[in-house]
Amino acid sequence: MPELLFTRILNGILASPVTALLQLIGIHPAHPQAPIPDHVAMQFLLVIVLTVLFLIVRSKLSVENPGGLQHVIEGAYNFVGNLGHEIIGHGVTLASARLAELNRLFGKAVQRTTSADALEMLSRIYWFTIEFGVLREAGAVKAYGTGLLSSAGEMAKMHQADLRRLELDEAAHLNYDPTHFQPVLFCADSFEMMYQTLREYLVNW
Questions:
Q1: Whole-number Å distance between alpha carbons of 89 and 84
Q2: Region 152-180 average pLDDT
Q3: Which among 28, 59, 85, 159 is annotated as catalytic?
């Protein structure tokens, strides 16, 4: 019976115990001297290779002195994470004509902004609406912000946050930390209320 070199080695070492185990559970292999087929041997080899690889990578991880491989892995992780945020969060919401309009109005407001302080205020309003905005619908609090929609963790913590009524002037002066779950969210009474309030604010910025 033809078999791969690794399969032959594996059968040479484990044929007797594997055959005995199979017979014990009522399975009688056609080739007792070689009960392990190529596809099972290849899966076993893959597990060994991945285990060794993970152990090597784990031994080289360092917060203080990251190596080249760690930079590559972290870069790939961040790329996939950011891509997911853009597609699941922003990409989906831009399919809404009104949310797409609000994004355009933010862009125009930025172009009219002449000071760093005003730009910071505008960025906070964007954060607490387009990124982390929530609203009430049929009595339930629901997310429309992209940062919430693209994060299962943020969605789970959303209902534990301090929900404040949507006041854009207050949001413009409230600092936030993007590295933690948001402790404060601004909640609109409805999508229509959020849209009209934010649209008027941006048009008059």
A1: 8
A2: 93
A3: 85
Domains of the chain with CATH codes: 5-60 (no CATH), 96-203 (1.10.800.10)
Residue 66, token pair as written in the block = 């990251």
**Of 3, 59, 86, 90, catalytic:** 90
C-alpha to C-alpha distance for 128 and 172, rounded to whole angstroms: 9
159 catalytically annotated: no
Q: Residue 160, CB half-sphere, CA atoms under 13 Å: how many?
A: 8
Sorted by sequence, the CB contacts under 8 Å of residue 36 that are 6+ apart come out as 7, 10, 11, 14, 15, 18, 44
Q: What's the half-sphere exposure (Cβ side, CA atoms, 13 Å) at 151? A: 19
Q: Is 150 a catalytic residue?
A: yes
Confidence of residue 90 (pLDDT cuts 50, 70, 90): low
Query: What is the distance between the alpha carbons of residues 80 and 199, in angstroms, rounded to a whole number?
Result: 32
Asked if 157 contacts 181 with a C-beta cutoff of 8 angstroms, the reply is yes
Residue 90: active-site member: yes
Active site residue 74: no
Residue 132 has pLDDT above 90, yes or no: yes
Provide the pLDDT for residue 179: 87
